[in-house]
Design brief:
Helix content is 33%, strand content 25%. With 735 residues, the protein is an alpha+beta fold. It folds into 5 domains: 80 residues, no CATH class; 83 residues, conserved putative lor/sdh protein from methanococcus maripaludis s2 fold; 130 residues, Elongation Factor Tu (Ef-tu), domain 3 (Beta Barrel), CATH 2.40.30.170; 95 residues, no CATH class; 146 residues, no CATH class. It is elongated.
Length: 735
């Protein structure tokens, strides 16, 4: 025991013992630590895994189990990410294997070559019918077959007519008695007989010849009224005809019509007076030119085509009615859909005969109508064209009826990500589409492989081409406070648009795009992003509607979108009942003046400037005195002036700020610039609201110590211009 005690009492032994125990504990901890960490990570992974059915991807559950539809075992589908609902990421190796190709969205001229087919036909304005002037028998037909070319005045047929014989006999007798003593009566009789013959269709020179004849004739000769081709012969020699019966049809083929057939998708590219070229296999090597004279306003319901008529000169007679032709129309449009052309710059065109083009105002050489400016007919010169349209490759677009989806490459450096977007398309220009809404210049879209990405989203039961409503259902009881605070002005603006007091949808789009999502929950923000883009496209579609029926259909879509916003985000539909009466410009101006005096008061209190607050309150009192509708602000401002100290001024500021908020709600109509209601739970010791002009918190109740304390409660009026993204909620700093 003495030796053991001596060993234990040695200083080095005790130190070695302590070191050994510590090393044992450290080693045990190291050995155990990774296992616990691994188990913890497994639990987190299990908690974030979504389980789905391979056959029914709409089934999504937080844990394993059976599919309620087909009873198959559920499999892990995906983990929750911070991206959008349509966002999907792929590895570069996978993208190369799937042969993905990307193309930038550009602004360029939308050019299309329309290849149309049709036939040659008669110019209906140059077709005349030859009818019998008198009843009788066709004794001779000088033109006895169709296709005969005739000149104006050529004899066509000779008719035996007893009625004509009697009328001519009366004419000759009346002429002979003109020199009798009762000359006045005989003149009236002579004129009456001439008028009778004129009404039969006999020319004046022919009547003169009849009157000069010594004996009446029982035959009348019909002559051609114009040059042309006899295209129809109805009667035969020996037939008895009545007055007005049709004998021949003559068509002048020096000008013909070419009737081309255009599909509905071609109509945006067609304009009156556009130049068209065409060829015919019957005339190889020749190219003919004309201008579009008529676009049929009615669609052929069976063949789904519209007739486009081109007026063409045919002085050589090469074009024959019934020939098949292949036409080509070169069309270019700007972003507004107006046709761009060089050859009609500064020209004047006949509205009925587009082949009549002059350098200045005048009248049409054919019909005498006043000429119209080419710009009034929808044409503009390249120098005066608006901004070029946005173009996206047609291969990048996934279309399902009226909807179209494009996958846009996101600007992430660490991973290759794409986001699906619903876009509003215009006309198709060859291998490209005109984009009216949903994309911006410089966006990079997936031009090859979009369907593969969309299929993956469909398997994950997320919004896709075939499943546009794959949105998570969210509680409508407690909507996100930040979104709810910014939503009312948009809803009011939509209601004013419905009442036609605001004709433009552009400001509403700007309000939606300016929403601050910096402190919005990621899931809520993803749903808002999806639905807000669809709402913007719906508003753009409304702006394109021309008829009442189209407008009503667009409004039905917008109403459905608002219901989606209510169902998925809880944004209140009842807000549509707010004041949407037309704004009073005088009250708007007065309210702006009042706000200009109010905001300095709020800023002064926030910076503990009692003297500045008193001076600002005096300006409010002065402004209210000059504006009878807002006279109630005078005593409220006076109370701030008379307050003994800064604390009392803050207490009297609260009712003044509440009155300002009420006035903006009642009379502002979202036209007085930015006005926001903020709330501080510590204001005045019990929580208080105030109105201010920016989204940046400037707390008038807490002063410099807690100047950023508060949160956004409501947007009473949106800013005149889109504000910078700023936080809307702040943490109370430590005093």
């Amino acid at each position: 025991m003495n030796k053991l005690a001596q060993v234990l009492l040695r200083p080095g032994f005790v130190l070695m013992l302590i070191v050994g125990v510590l090393m044992f504990l450290i080693g045990w901890r190291i050995a155990k630590g990774p296992a616990e960490t691994h188990d913890h990570q497994k639990m987190e992974a299990a908690a974030s895994t979504v389980w789905t059915c391979a056959m029914h991807p709409q089934i999504r559950q937080p844990g394993p189990g059976k599919c309620p539809i087909c009873k198959m075992n559920l499999i892990p589908a995906s983990t929750k990410t911070a991206g959008g609902l349509r966002e999907i990421s792929v590895m570069p190796e996978t993208a190369a294997m799937l042969d993905f190709r990307v193309t930038p969205v550009i602004r360029a001229a939308a050019v299309r070559e329309l290849r149309l087919f049709g036939t040659v036909s008669y110019d209906e304005r140059r077709v005349q019918s030859i009818t019998a002037w008198v009843g009788g028998r066709l004794d001779r037909m000088f033109v006895d077959f169709t296709g005969t070319r005739v000149r104006k005045g050529n004899h066509l047929a000779e008719i035996y007519s007893p009625d004509l014989f009697v009328a001519q006999q009366d004419l000759i007798q009346a002429r002979r008695q003109l020199g009798s003593t009762n000359g006045g009566t005989q003149r009236l009789l002579y004129d009456a007989v001439r008028e009778k013959l004129r009404l039969l269709g006999i020319p004046a020179e022919r009547i003169d010849a009849m009157a000069a004849a010594e004996a009446p004739s029982d035959h009348v000769v019909l002559s051609a009224p114009q040059d042309g081709i006899v295209v129809e012969k109805i009667a035969r020699e020996g037939d008895y005809v009545t007055v007005g019966q049709k004998l021949y049809t003559i068509a002048d083929l020096d000008m013909v019509w070419v009737n081309l057939e255009a599909y509905e998708s071609d109509l945006p590219w067609l304009r009156f007076a556009q130049e068209a070229t065409f060829t015919s296999e019957a005339i190889p090597g020749r190219e003919f030119h004309g201008r579009v004279a008529f676009i049929d306003p009615v669609l052929d319901r069976k063949r789904r085509v519209v007739s486009v008529r081109v007026n063409v000169k045919n002085e050589e007679g090469l074009l024959k009615p019934g020939m098949f032709v292949s036409g080509l129309i070169h069309s270019e449009i700007d972003a507004s859909g107006r046709a761009v052309t060089n050859d009609l710059q500064g020209k004047w065109v006949s509205p009925m005969h587009p082949e009549i083009i002059k350098d200045g105002p005048g009248v049409c050489d054919i019909c005498g109508m006043k000429l119209e400016r080419a710009e009034d007919l929808g044409f503009i010169s390249p120098g005066k064209a608006g901004k070029l349209p946005l173009l996206v490759p047609a291969s990048a677009v996934l279309r399902t009826g009226e909807r179209a989806i494009v996958y846009v490459k996101l600007p992430k450096e660490d991973i290759l990500s794409f986001e699906g977007r619903e876009v509003l398309l215009g006309a198709r220009a060859g291998d490209q589409y005109v984009v009216e809404s949903g994309l911006a210049q410089g966006d990079v879209v997936l031009s090859r492989g979009a369907f593969k990405l969309d299929s993956e989203l469909q398997l994950q039961a997320r919004p896709s081409m075939m499943n546009p409503d794959g949105l998570p259902q969210m509680s409508a009881v407690k909507p996100d406070t930040v979104l709810a605070a910014q939503w009312p002005p948009v809803l009011r603006a939509i209601q004013r648009l419905r009442n036609e007091s605001d004709p433009e949808a552009g400001p509403i789009v700007q309000q939606i795009e300016a929403f601050d999502l910096s402190v919005v929950d990621l899931d809520v923000g993803a749903v808002w992003k999806e639905l807000s883009r669809s709402l913007i496209n719906d508003l753009q579609q409304l702006a394109k509607a021309d008829t009442k029926k189209e407008q009503q259909r667009a409004w039905n879509v917008i109403d459905g979108r608002l219901e989606q916003l209510h169902r998925h985000l809880g944004l209140g539909v009842e807000m549509r009942t707010e004041n949407t009466q037309p704004a009073d410009p005088q009250r708007i101006a007065m309210l702006r003046r009042l706000l200009e005096a109010y905001f300095p008061l709020q800023i002064a209190l926030a910076h503990d400037d009692g003297a500045g607050a008193k001076q600002a309150a005096a300006e409010i009192e002065k402004a209210a005195e000059a504006m009878p509708p807002y006279a109630k602000f005078k005593p409220l401002a006076n109370a701030v002036i008379k307050a003994a100290d800064i604390k009392a001024r803050r207490a009297t500021f609260e009712p003044l700020s509440a009155a300002i908020s009420d006035a903006v709600r009642q009379d502002g109509h979202d036209l007085v610039g930015g006005v926001f209601v903020m709330h501080c739970p510590m204001g005045l010791g019990r929580g208080a609201d105030w109105a201010q002009g920016t989204r940046d918190i400037v707390n008038p109740y807490m002063g410099k110590v807690m100047i950023t304390c508060g949160e956004l409660r409501q947007t009473l009026s949106p800013p005149d211009t889109a504000p910078a993204t700023t936080p809307t909620e702040h943490v109370h700093p430590k005093p």
